[in-house]
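Our example copied in:
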Amino acid sequence: MRPALALYPTLLLTVLTTAWGCAVRQPDVHFASGDLAHYERFATQIEYPDVQSCTAPCVAATPAPITLADRTPPQFRGLTLREAIETALNHADVLRDLRGLVLASPGNLTTIADPAIINTDPTFGEEAALSAFDAMFEMNAYFEKNDRALNNQFLGGGTRLLRQDLHLYQAQISKRSASGTDFTLRHNVQYDFNNAPGNNIPNLPWDVNVEAEVRQPLLQGAGVEFNRIAGPDSEPGRARGVLIARINTDISLADFEAGVRDFVYEVESAYWELYFAYRDLDARIAARDQALETWRQISTWQKTGRSGGEAQNELQAREQYFRMQEEVENALSGQVFENLRYENFRGISGVHAAERRLRLLMGLPINEGILLRPADEPAMAEVVFEWDEILTEGLVRRVELRRQKWQIKRRELELVAAKNYLKPRLDAVGRYRWRGLGHDLLNPDGGTGGFDNAYGTLTGGDFQEWQLGVELTAPLGFRQAHAAVRNAELMLARERAVLSEQERSVSHDLSSAYAELQRAYLVSQTNYNRRLAAREQLLALRTAVERADHREKTRLLDLLLDAQRRLADAESRYYRSIVEYTLAVTRVHLQKGSLLDYCEIYLAEGPWPGKAYYDACRRDRLRSAPLCLADYRMMHAPVVSQGEYAQQTESDLSYDRSPADERNHRLPPVPAPAGVPELAEPTL
């Protein structure tokens, strides 16, 4: 009967489990009929976040833009290029662009807070990496009340009933050093009051001890180099040390510098785009006025019956006037095109459209009833660059190459850390402990016995313990470590290959910019000669039309109207070419990495908090010469940086320069080749 009775508990447990499982099943729910329209309305509608915009009132107060329908002439405000760039940088919390990223892809925008965001990242930032070496305080307390019947005469006494009050207290401070050593100071307090008959002295419930522990890795995880790269308690493939965090910050600074550089280039491009829009408008207005004068003259001939005043000639002159009027209106207002980044000068915008884009980049109100007008003139003199010098400078100063070199340095450090995991984990451990036992935890009055209070026994130093040992852990085969090393080697090879291709790309882009500079300068001279020729042709045709007879006037009228259009195109092409030349000089500086220096813009990290300066001074007073140990893993630290990056390399020239040449660091004007007229200084 005993085997059958043994099945009863199992059968009972099965029945209870089945019943519980049936009880937790989701019951069939039947909804009563009712009106759910109220809940459906609020549960399915799209909600709006409760966020107040700090700029919405200002933007909502923006006046209407200036259009062709306005009959009141607008006011103008002169603006230099330096002022435009300074204003844009002063309002550049977000580095704006003309591609519409602020609405289409705001996550890809560059802001002034990006480097600080990377630096203060709570997981991968520098402070997060340094926090792994901070001292850690831990404390816990547990309380138990045990009242049980025991089948043991040594624990429960004669009655075999154990009654126990048990308290456990623990507090410790631990610190990880840069070499990987763990230091721990721990204090344990135990209160155990029970009725066990085996106690020699029944009333000694307090047991205290203070222990110090040191754990030093000898192979894996040892050394300053590894701990600064990978950080404590790291894993293969997840380096989060302070050096990696600092490199991440340097990469973010390079990204920010590239964003500032591109932003400045866009501001300057928009400035010269507006300059050309004004020049193009002047040329179109002059052509329109000439067409109007021709139309009026032919109309006068028609009314007086003179030769040349035929109806077909009057209609042809009228059509020419309205064609020119259309070009004037387009040159004044501009047409809306897709948002594109103006890597190259396009010259298709009107004054109003180009002015609004410049305001957008400068952070000014989009519309305020005043038109900005460039006050600077584009470059006229030839700028000469030595190819070998600018190529060497481009390979050194391009921020993209500096960023990629930081990536390579990061991969090199990760490879060093990955090789450390090929070693077994061998730790040397040492502990030293003082103990105390007593009737009271702390009794200032003392007592007659030797164990009257636990802390008195502890401080007496009669009970001391120590422990020394080693701990070894090693995976057989080190499969994960070998995979981490191979992955780090492949990542390093990839970054080096990318750097090689980037250098080739820099050489290509710089070659294109250098060739574009030569083309733009020669084309500007050619367009200047074309402009003079078109102007002289128009004057000659006017004189010929005045002196021609009836049949000759009809033939020369076509040539006169065509000459007016040619002069307008020649004027526009001339000013377009000198703007292209100015931007070609800027583009050479862009490609060789000196654009910010060219615009006298220099970047620096912000100041530290005041507490950081105080701590730095205090630590400097405590500095001493480092110990010279034979074990390189204890004191060796990797060299990561070569020092400060020189943002300004060009020295001041000795001759006197104008403010424009002072900014551009241009050479003195070079005379035009023989037979080619000098470029005249244009005026607005």
Observations:
- Residues 518 and 648 are 25 Å apart (CA to CA).
- Residues 81-119+249-374 form one domain.
- The longest strand covers residues 161-176.
